[in-house]
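Form P-L/3: holo structure prediction, ligand farnesyl diphosphate.
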Amino acid sequence: MSDFGNLIGLFGLSIILIKIDHSLPIPKHIAIIMDGNGRWAKKRFLPRSSGHRQGAKTVKEIVKAAKSFNIPVLTLYAFSTENWKRPPDEVSFLFDLLFNFIEKSFQEFIDGGVRLRVLGDISKFPPRLINEIERTVKESAANKDLQLNIALNYGARQEIILAFKKMAAAGITDPTQEDVSKFLYTHDQPDPDLLIRTSGERRISNFLLWQIAYSELYITDVLWPDFTKADLETAIAHFQKRQRRFGGL
Ligand code: FPP
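OUTPUT (holo model):
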């Protein structure tokens, strides 16, 4: 990429789309903070729900894209523990969208080898949504192509506290880093090597705090509903251009 492209990249703008280099490693786990649905709708004088609906369409495209790029694990932050503070109408709209996504679109993904896992505590979700999620998790359990984690009622601090409680219950009194990792929702998965946040905010928002210790961060101004396969490819290509030293030289 040109210096100009690098400059643009520094400011988080993905005006210049760049391609994956197939001779270099690709991320084993991409995590995405899907942000900007509300702003997408506001720019168009539409209700926030339209932004979420468009955002759900982007979810479908990006799951397909991740699969086509052979990414082993994709984690999407769909509902945080803080999102309950939104107006009840918006919360129930998000639940309906999720239900429709899983009920109507997921079969195609299951047939295509996608495995679903939930990160978070969905016990307070509407029962029919819980049933649909649990059914899909079971039905897709043997799939191996793409592990799709959807973070739902998820908070990283809560996840870490839960891990420590589980370790105490298992009699682990002097935990190692490996012990902690083993008791997280992502216990058998590689840590994300690439974390993407859309819509330009530079925050982690209580997402995968333990797992992203060494992740490369990629922030783009593109709003989630506008995020495309080409934007995902650009993010992966940026990742490939960075040298990961893990604290070494
Ligand atoms: C952030 O945008 C987005 C969310 C809190 C919800 C994410 C939900 C979806 C992408 C759609 C449904 C999900 C699935 C998995 C089908 P925001 O509302 O905070 O946007 P703003 O910051 O511009 O207001």
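COMMENT: The beta strands are 29-33, 73-80, 114-119, 146-154, 194-197, 216-219.
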